[in-house]
Amino acid sequence: MDMLKYYNEKNIIPVHQDIVKSDFGRFRFQREMLYSNLGIQPSYFTGKNVAEFGPGTGDNALVIMQNNPRNITLIDGNVSSLESLKLKIELGVLDPKVCKIIDSSVMNYGVGNEFASLYDVVISEGMINGNENPDKIVNHLFKMVKPGGVFILTSVSAWGVVDQAVRRVFLPAINNIASSYFESVQIASGIFRSHLSNLPTSKPIEDWVQDAVLHPLTSNYIFDAEDVIDCIK
Asked: Which pTM does this prediction carry?
């Protein structure tokens, strides 16, 4: 089951960031340090056309907004994500003059107009792995990057899923006790809460469990940096 189908079937957005509780300043610092470690200074976003695929609740986009991009296009096919993004626009959390929300899956986006607008920055975090034909998704996204632009994406190696594989040993017992998916979420959250509390993250335990433990792994979940390079070289 690919990620989008899983999210829509369960009606979830397991990528929330508790930035009110954990302090937006700290969350912004973490995100900007990530970009900096990738060789992208936060000021690079200033005046740029940015596209983010799979933006979830739009929390990461909030950080990019602090650096005054020309515009940012948020593309998602998850119904719950789209509702959350639209609510942020309505509440003025995201600026409608800068942010544009598009309801589309990755592979359907741009079909028919050959990407009338190319982007200075294309972002796809935690979205490619777990989908069918991740190589086709990477190639599709790469076509949207302007020459000299930046492509930010998440890849996952075999070592990157060892911790998930170990935790999944508990799943048969959890699902045997639970009467519903969301009861499985609560039971698993109780088991793994101490794991998440030792990680420097602002993601709620329930989201982490849904995204990292309960999501059904597929044979194409492992798609590492070498695979990405093979796609775009």
From this structure: 0.83
